[in-house]
Specification:
Elements lengths: L1 H11 L5 H14 L4 H14 L3 H12 L7 H28 L2 H5 L5 H20 L7 H13 L3 H13 L7 H13 L4 H14 L6 H10 L3 H14 L9 H16 L3 H9 L5 H5 L2 H10 L1 H15 L4 H13 L1 H14 L1 H4 L1
Length: about 350
């Protein structure tokens, strides 16, 4: 209680100096053996906020060698101490890397500069490898490791780490892990099949993620029927979310996937998605006010939505009829294409 209250008072007092906080933490370390590791960790965070990386590193190194009681909670805290000390080793590695000349970076011989850099890499990497054996969300530590491995051109080990972090059951489902893996694969121009696998996993965890648009584009390019079916699922799911509601690209891709499914005589795929939304999509997407607003603000969007509404609800769709009425005045050729598409693919005729 004294530690918590004292910390809050010092952090919020306008006349508090760094020396006051350092002195207080030192006293707490001496009298609070059971909270020693917590105090050390908090003190390190405070020094980091002040830009004192070296002092924070020294404090964590001392804390790492401290032993008292050996309780489970203290062992867990010790892992955090080790993890953040390793992260500071990485920060030092980055600092030294930025100070190296172009000649040093291109020279693969064991110079003093490169050896010093490699020592910090080993310190950080070995500790982090041990940390990754424990369940948790280790995002900053994983991307730090990948950065170092890429510098040494060990792409295979970096990929292995990212796949382990994304798919191993040791870790809780973490969307960021799939984003890191996707970014790495794109950077190294991996096959589309590998990228689609990662994006499919991301879709299962965050179906409204911004990368789903790229996933849809990859699915649309594929000639496989299973990808057409999945593309419909991803498209419909994205449009369930307000942030994607008026995204023209998604509506375009949905029209293409619906057309493809109809040509494959797989209208039941469309029907299945529509049945899940039939009670709320009309008000969400296909209301009279939406038709008026879309036509005024973005006619390309209104056109695609009218196609979808016509397929899902038939020519009797309020949205479809309103847009048709407006296109009748504005552009008759557009109206003709709309009606032809709906007549060909409408689900109402298939029932």
């Amino acid at each position: 209680v004294i530690w918590r209250m004292g910390t809050e008072i010092l952090l919020h007092h306008p006349e508090t100096r760094d020396d006051d906080i350092n002195s207080f933490h030192s006293q707490m370390k001496n009298i609070g053996l059971k909270i020693y590791l917590k105090v050390c960790l908090e003190h390190a965070f405070h020094m980091l906020c002040g830009g004192n990386l070296d002092e924070a590193h020294r404090g964590l190194t001392v804390a790492e060698s401290w032993r008292y009681g050996g309780t489970y909670s203290q062992q867990e805290l010790l892992k955090f101490i080790q993890a953040y000390r390793a992260l500071l080793d990485y920060c030092t590695w980055c600092k030294k890397r930025s100070m190296m000349s172009k000649e040093d970076l291109e020279d693969h011989t064991e110079t003093t500069v490169s050896q010093d850099l490699h020592n910090y890499f080993r310190q950080a990497f070995v500790t982090m490898q041990e940390i990754f054996k424990n369940p948790g969300v280790w995002d900053p530590f994983v991307i730090s490791c990948v950065d170092m491995l890429e510098f040494y051109e060990d792409h295979e080990e970096a990929l292995k780490l990212l796949e382990f972090y994304a798919y191993d059951k040791l870790f809780v489902p973490n969307p960021n892990a799939f984003v890191y893996l996707y970014t790495f694969l794109k950077k190294h121009q991996a096959e589309e099949k590998a990228i689609m696998k990662v994006l499919k996993s991301l879709h299962q965890h965050v179906p409204s993620h911004q990368l789903m648009l790229e996933f849809l584009e990859l699915l649309e390019k594929s000639k496989k029927q299973k990808h057409c079916k999945l593309g419909l699922t991803v498209s419909f799911t994205l449009l369930d979310y307000p942030d994607w509601k008026n995204n023209l690209d998604v509506w375009k891709l949905l029209v293409k996937q619906m057309s493809k499914a109809a040509n494959l005589k797989r209208t039941e795929w469309i029907q299945k998605q529509w049945e899940l939304r039939i009670n709320w999509w009309p008000d969400f997407h296909f209301s009279v006010s939406q038709a008026k607003k879309n036509f005024i603000e973005q006619r390309s969007l209104a056109y695609r939505k009218a196609l979808v509404a016509g397929v899902l609800q038939g020519k009797g769709s309020i949205y479809f009829k309103r847009i048709c009425r407006r296109w009748k005045i504005a552009k008759k050729s557009k109206l003709k294409r709309m009606k032809k598409f709906v007549v060909k693919h409408s689900l109402v005729q298939c029932e």
